[in-house]
TrEMBL record:
It comes from Panicum miliaceum (Proso millet). Keywords: Lyase, Purine biosynthesis. It is an enzyme of class 4 (lyase). One of its GO terms (biological process) is 'de novo' IMP biosynthetic process. This is Adenylosuccinate lyase. Pathway: Purine metabolism; IMP biosynthesis via de novo pathway; 5-amino-1-(5-phospho-D-ribosyl)imidazole-4-carboxamide from 5-amino-1-(5-phospho-D-ribosyl)imidazole-4-carboxylate: step 2/2; Purine metabolism; AMP biosynthesis via de novo pathway; AMP from IMP: step 2/2. Its EC number is 4.3.2.2. GO terms for molecular function: (S)-2-(5-amino-1-(5-phospho-D-ribosyl)imidazole-4-carboxamido) succinate lyase (fumarate-forming) activity; N6-(1,2-dicarboxyethyl)AMP AMP-lyase (fumarate-forming) activity. Residues 406-520 form the Adenylosuccinate lyase PurB C-terminal domain. PROSITE patterns: FUMARATE_LYASES. It catalyses: N(6)-(1,2-dicarboxyethyl)-AMP = fumarate + AMP; (2S)-2-[5-amino-1-(5-phospho-beta-D-ribosyl)imidazole-4-carboxamido]succinate = 5-amino-1-(5-phospho-beta-D-ribosyl)imidazole-4-carboxamide + fumarate. It holds the Pfam family Lyase_1. Gene3D superfamilies: Fumarase/aspartase (C-terminal domain), Fumarase/aspartase (Central domain), Fumarase/aspartase (N-terminal domain). SUPFAM superfamilies: L-aspartase-like.
Length: 543
């Protein structure tokens, strides 16, 4: 497809200059972006297991098709070697499910969708007689542009943009050219982008990308993590483990209870996502419907805008400038930051437990832990997750703090920031899948748990002094402090102390039966009950 007559590019010289040759090499490199043909996976655990969870939402079939298109292109390895971001290079296989939503292709496609839907909406407004209702054939033609939009179409838009130097205007020209073969639509093609500012199109595009990408890709990965932690909790509910506060031995707990703590925290954050409203604006250049009212003063434009935005599955923001102020993105990303903080806490605890020998790592055939120490099995997945969560939160925090600030009715500083929505989410998704892999490779080391517990009989000072308080024995805390603080405490020395207490034989017998292994309170029951508390049905969704 050629560019519009008024946008013809200047002829190029027959002999390519060094700069042109370099540009040609870049073009070849960029085209070499193969992706292995596959079905979209919305499950982090499925990705680990090698299973495939296909998309069930027909409305998102386009995303799956776009990945299949990428899979048909050659030489992905070359592209990955030269990719500036490791998300698009080394790690692309872990996060490619986000590409249809937050890539340049995804943004262009969403813009095409908004422009087409707006023209269809105009045809339904009786007062706008210049755009009469479309025939069924014309509607199918317009909807087909969106439904069948692919990478080659996006490339056509980019060709036009090279001439216009304006990305949204390029979409408008693309649609006019695409519809020139349909006389019914061609007659009203000037109503593409009618009364719109670019941000009317852009804000709805980013909103749809966030809603569909987060619901379809991010939340399933987060739910998988919560489920994995619930499984760790219930399966290991009875294994006693020495607690550590300030890094020092403390009252025992169970492995399962410590996993349950994280499951509860993360699932609780998940419930808050449902409170986020994905907002949109469609009020023109400065938010007042200025041009709309001049052209068609009889139309209730705020009502039309609200109907249009809600038809897209978004919420309407009536008070805006040229831009939707992005406050909801800040709220959404702050929740991701909170989730990521808790997951960082989990990753570091798992790293510590592995370091202490409380978890064994299952070796994988062929893997190398160290280039010089053959014995090493390192907790690389938890470390990878930790690092990526740090990167993700840095980016998400920067976006969250920047987007709500815009000079007067609008400056352009939000535009380049909005193009990085997928970067912060990409590092988050990479971390989620790394954590899942890490969890799948560990198992409890019962002998190490028992070994440390057997060395720390001093932890029984707490229950003994508490029982002494009940029965009126003076200075119970001070007596146990003298016995245990900085002292080597054994089973025998603790038993000797109990034998010297002025208490009944029944109470003495109960205290004598206490061991560091059995002194876990209600930890086992709390771990077993975690699935009753964790609610993954009402959380992790944006309506």
């Amino acid at each position: 497809m050629s560019a519009p007559p008024s946008l013809k590019a200047p002829a190029t010289a027959a002999a390519a200059s060094p700069r042109a040759a370099a540009a040609a090499r870049v073009t070849v490199l960029r085209s070499a972006c193969a992706r292995p043909t596959r079905r979209l996976q919305f499950s982090a655990s499925a990705a680990v297991a090698g299973a495939s969870t296909e998309m069930t939402d027909d409305n998102l079939g386009w995303a799956e098709r776009s990945l299949e298109e990428l899979g048909s292109l050659p030489d992905n390895d070359t592209f990955c070697l030269m990719a500036l971001s490791p998300l698009d290079g080394r790690y692309d296989r872990f996060i490619k499910d986000l590409m249809p939503f937050f890539s340049e292709f995804g943004l262009i496609r969403y813009r095409v969708l908004i422009e087409v839907k707006w023209l269809l909406k105009l045809s339904q407004i009786p007062e706008i007689t210049e755009v009469p209702p479309f025939s069924e054939e014309a509607q199918l033609f317009l909807n087909g542009i969106v439904q069948n939009f692919g990478i080659d179409d996006a490339k056509e838009v980019k060709k036009i943009e090279k001439i216009t130097n304006h990305d949204v205007k390029a979409v408008e020209y693309f649609l006019k050219q695409r519809c020139s073969s349909n006389p019914e639509i061609a007659k009203v093609s000037e109503f593409f982008h009618f009364a719109c500012t670019s941000e009317d199109i852009n804000n709805l595009s980013h909103a749809l990308a966030l809603k569909e990408g987060v619901n379809g890709v991010m939340f399933p990965g987060m739910i998988d993590i919560c489920k994995a932690m619930c499984s760790l909790a219930t399966q290991n509910s009875a294994y006693p483990v020495l607690s550590r506060t300030h890094g020092q031995p403390a009252s025992p707990t169970t492995v399962g209870k410590e996993m349950a703590n994280f499951a509860a925290r993360l699932s609780d954050i998940g419930k808050s996502f449902s409170e986020v409203k994905i907002l949109g604006k469609f009020a023109g250049a400065v938010g007042n419907y200025n041009a709309h009212v001049v052209a068609y003063p009889e139309v209730d434009w705020p009502k039309v805008a609200e109907e249009f935005i809600r038809s897209l599955g978004l919420q309407f923001n009536p008070y805006v400038t040229q831009i939707e102020p992005h406050d909801y993105i800040s709220k959404l990303f702050n929740l991701f930051i909170q989730f990521n903080n808790v997951l960082t806490d989990f990753d570091r605890d798992m790293w510590s437990y592995i370091s202490l020998g409380y978890f064994k790592q299952i070796p994988k055939a062929g893997e190398v832990g160290s280039s010089t120490m053959p014995h090493k099995i390192n907790p690389i997945d938890f470390e990878n997750s930790d690092g990526n969560l740090h990167l993700a939160n840095g980016i998400l925090s920067a976006i969250s703090m920047k987007l709500p600030i815009s000079r007067l009715q609008r400056d352009l500083t939000d535009s380049t920031v909005l193009r990085n929505l997928g970067v912060g989410l990409g590092h988050s998704l990479l971390a989620y899948r790394a954590t899942i892999r890490g969890v799948s490779k560990v198992q409890v080391n019962e002998s190490r748990l028992a070994e440390d517990l057997e060395k720390t009989w001093e932890v029984l000072a707490e229950p003994i002094q508490t029982v002494m308080r009940r029965y009126g024995i003076p200075e119970p805390y001070e007596k146990l402090k003298e016995l245990t603080r900085g002292q080597a405490v054994t089973k025998d020395s603790m038993q000797q102390f109990i034998d010297g207490l002025d208490i009944s034989e029944e109470v003495r017998s109960k205290l004598a039966k206490l061991t560091p292994h059995s002194y876990t309170g209600l930890a086992e029951d709390l771990a077993k009950d975690i699935e009753k508390l964790v609610d993954l049905e009402s959380g992790f969704k944006i309506k």
